[in-house]
């Protein structure tokens, strides 16, 4: 298949696509990003990659980082992490305070903020220096030592993260946060501030398309079974209250972030990352979703 020709069609077709929506103003640093950025990188199982536009430019990966932290929590926390976070779609926005009223403050899944904050708490308990470990892990699976946190984005969110502060404190009152609330928030804001390009993200996510193995080195970093589980949660919960819509239109497991990025994987075939900062009201990149819908329609390569 001529992937580059298909990507050229998508780029051209969407050049004047009116995404509507807005950049997230609740993280002031992200509101500064030019809304017209648009790039995509497709990374194939055979190591080939294809792209267009701003595919090589760094952006804030935000909630896409929740997939990396879940991967590490599963590795170090084992099965018992499922006693503290469920695996059901929530049908609520990513930052919702709802559905925590169960006695133990157990979030619906690890990809809503509440769930990822519990995962952050688990990593703080399991690892001596979770920030350093996470960064080294992401650099390793991307085979790229230049990847880093964005201190100004982390600080910007810390100053304005009232919702997340409320979530951590509420869950702590119910006994599902074990560490100091400030430490959990600090780690969470740092993980969200990771800056990566579509190229780097699609390369990193090849572990989920390649049964847990890093494509370039062959090293297995997640078991096949855990890869299956993480892909399943991406499929059902990766887009919050728009998970059904993404599944319906794109037909791949994936994860979005309020930085405007989306990554999706086709196990055994490819991983793809797209970036366009304007978000719809569910907090997902509208043009990014459209580009991926076109990709799976034109190639016929969705998982369904
Ligand atoms: N850091 C963002 C938040 O907690 C992440 C949300 C997202 O990307 N959906 O609000």
From TrEMBL:
Keywords, alphabetical: Acetylation, Hydrolase
Keyword Hydrolase carried by entry: yes
Top-level taxonomic group: Bacteria
InterPro entries tied to this protein: Beta-lactam/transpept-like, Glutaminase
Binding site for substrate: 63, 113, 157, 164, 188, 240, 258
Catalytic activity, as annotated: L-glutamine + H2O = L-glutamate + NH4(+)
EC annotation from Swiss-Prot or TrEMBL: 3.5.1.2
Gene Ontology BP annotations: glutamate biosynthetic process; L-glutamine catabolic process
GO molecular function, one term: glutaminase activity
Subunit architecture: Homotetramer.
Family listed: Belongs to the glutaminase family.
Protein name per the record: Glutaminase
Source taxonomy: Bacteria, Pseudomonadati, Bacteroidota, Flavobacteriia, Flavobacteriales
Recorded name of the encoding gene: glsA
């Amino acid at each position: 298949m001529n992937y580059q020709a298909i990507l050229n069609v998508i780029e051209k077709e969407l050049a004047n696509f009116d995404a509507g929506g807005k950049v997230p103003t609740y993280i002031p640093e992200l509101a500064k990003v030019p809304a017209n950025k648009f790039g995509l990188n497709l990374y194939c199982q055979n190591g080939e990659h294809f792209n267009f536009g701003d595919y090589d430019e760094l952006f804030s990966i935000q909630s896409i980082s929740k997939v990396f932290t879940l991967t590490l929590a599963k590795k170090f926390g084992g099965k018992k992490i499922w006693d503290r976070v469920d695996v059901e779609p929530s049908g609520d926005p990513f930052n919702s305070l709802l559905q925590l009223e169960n006695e133990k403050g157990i979030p619906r899944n690890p990809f809503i903020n509440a769930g990822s904050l519990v995962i952050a708490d688990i990593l703080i308990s399991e690892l001596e220096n979770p920030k350093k470990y996470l960064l080294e892990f992401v650099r390793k699976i991307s085979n790229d030592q230049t990847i880093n946190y964005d201190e100004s984005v982390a600080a910007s969110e810390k100053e304005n993260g009232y919702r997340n502060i409320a979530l951590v404190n509420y869950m702590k009152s119910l006994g599902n946060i074990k560490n100091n609330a400030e430490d959990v928030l600090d780690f969470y804001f740092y993980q969200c501030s990771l800056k990566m390009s579509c190229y780097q993200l699609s390369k990193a996510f090849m572990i989920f398309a390649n049964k847990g193995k890093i494509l370039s080195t062959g090293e297995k970093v997640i078991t096949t079974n855990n890869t299956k589980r993480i892909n399943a949660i991406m499929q059902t919960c990766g887009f919050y209250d728009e998970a059904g819509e993404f599944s319906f239109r794109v037909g791949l497991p994936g994860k979005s972030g309020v930085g405007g990025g989306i990554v999706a994987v086709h196990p055994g075939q490819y991983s793809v990352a797209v970036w366009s900062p304007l978000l719809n009201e569910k907090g997902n990149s509208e043009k990014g979703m459209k580009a991926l819908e076109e990709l799976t329609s034109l190639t016929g390569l969705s998982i369904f």
